[in-house]
Structure to design on (349 residues):
């Protein structure tokens, strides 16, 4: 079982790679909409990449209102 | 320009090696409004000649955002806002009748049809993909019926066609929660028949089409006609239900919220 920190770290790596930003610029508490300057369609791309990486299904209503990486990781943890 | 080749503002097609390739190409995400409907009608009119030259058809998108984000809600909101309720209702019904005619024609084509889907495949875009016999989904594809968020049901034939393809329980889940699903889930429920690696859906669709064109066209058309009946009665009922719901105030409120949302969340629940 992954720890919350591990899951958060993997999500940060995925986000950095997908949106082509430096991993060092991203923090677990960041608002990813603001930090990455993304819209809802791009957020769905990130969600898809996260689902594919972790092999989980995460209904988008479960992440509605979530905008920081750590909270997103808790939603993933609940599905692992 | 010959009927086997066309390049419009939002759609283009050509025939190569016995396969019709149709590309959606309207920025930003192939929203289906009057312009794309015009091109789709032109395509439907050209289909008889294209069908005489080909054995398979591939429908895909040239837009990086995905296959299609669905109906052009901004255009719909603007047009409805420019007229009275009765005229708006009449216009919506006319639009639905036109899009149903086109989608039914694609659905019933004797060609074996393949939707190569990447990225967003929402609402009316999802309904367009569902007219095809096979869906090849890129690993980053995402399918969704978000219409209930607007106080509507899918209006381009989505529910009857999805119900034809997959179990009713999953249809209800997608319809009643408005959630989106990825390609892996789409494969698991029988919506997609193949999942491609990222960026490979069109190549895989071409490979599949090349296999399909080896078979006798008449036999393939007979097999398709046998296994894929048009749910005509339900498609008619869907238009009526959509039009009844469209007259309710909740719809304009939902459209206004979507169109006037200056934030980043319009495609999230």
């Amino acid at each position: 079982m992954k720890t919350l920190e591990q899951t958060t770290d993997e999500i940060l790596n995925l986000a950095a790679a997908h949106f082509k930003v430096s991993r060092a610029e991203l923090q677990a508490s960041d608002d990813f909409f603001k930090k990455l300057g993304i819209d809802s369609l791009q957020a769905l791309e990130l969600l898809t990449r996260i689902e594919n990486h972790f092999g989980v299904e995460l209904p988008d209503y479960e992440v509605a209102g979530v905008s920081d990486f750590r909270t997103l990781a808790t939603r993933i943890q609940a599905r692992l | 320009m010959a009927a086997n080749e066309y390049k419009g503002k939002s759609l283009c097609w050509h025939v190569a090696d016995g396969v019709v390739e149709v590309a959606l190409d309207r920025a930003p995400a192939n929203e289906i409004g009057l312009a794309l409907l015009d091109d789709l009608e032109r395509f439907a009119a050209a289909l008889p000649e294209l069908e005489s030259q080909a054995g398979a058809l591939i429908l895909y998108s040239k837009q990086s955002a995905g296959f299609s984000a669905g109906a052009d809600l901004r255009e719909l909101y603007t047009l409805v806002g420019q007229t009275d309720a009765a005229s708006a209702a009449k216009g919506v019904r006319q639009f639905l009748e036109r899009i149903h005619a086109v989608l039914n024609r694609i659905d019933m084509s004797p060609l074996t049809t393949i939707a190569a889907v990447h990225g967003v495949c929402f609402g009316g875009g999802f309904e367009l993909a569902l007219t095809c016999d096979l869906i090849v989904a890129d690993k980053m594809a995402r399918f969704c019926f978000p219409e209930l968020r607007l106080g509507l049901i899918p209006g381009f034939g989505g529910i009857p066609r999805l119900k034809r393809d997959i179990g009713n329980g999953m249809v209800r889940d997608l319809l009643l929660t408005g959630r989106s699903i990825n390609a892996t889930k789409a494969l698991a429920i029988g919506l997609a028949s193949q999942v491609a690696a990222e960026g490979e859906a069109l190549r895989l669709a071409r490979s599949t089409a090349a296999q399909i064109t080896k078979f006798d066209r008449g036999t393939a058309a007979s097999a398709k006609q046998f296994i894929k009946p048009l749910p005509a009665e339900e498609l008619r009922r869907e238009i009526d239900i959509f039009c009844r719901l469209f007259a309710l105030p909740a719809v304009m409120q939902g459209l206004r919220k979507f169109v006037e949302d200056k934030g980043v969340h319009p495609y999230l629940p």
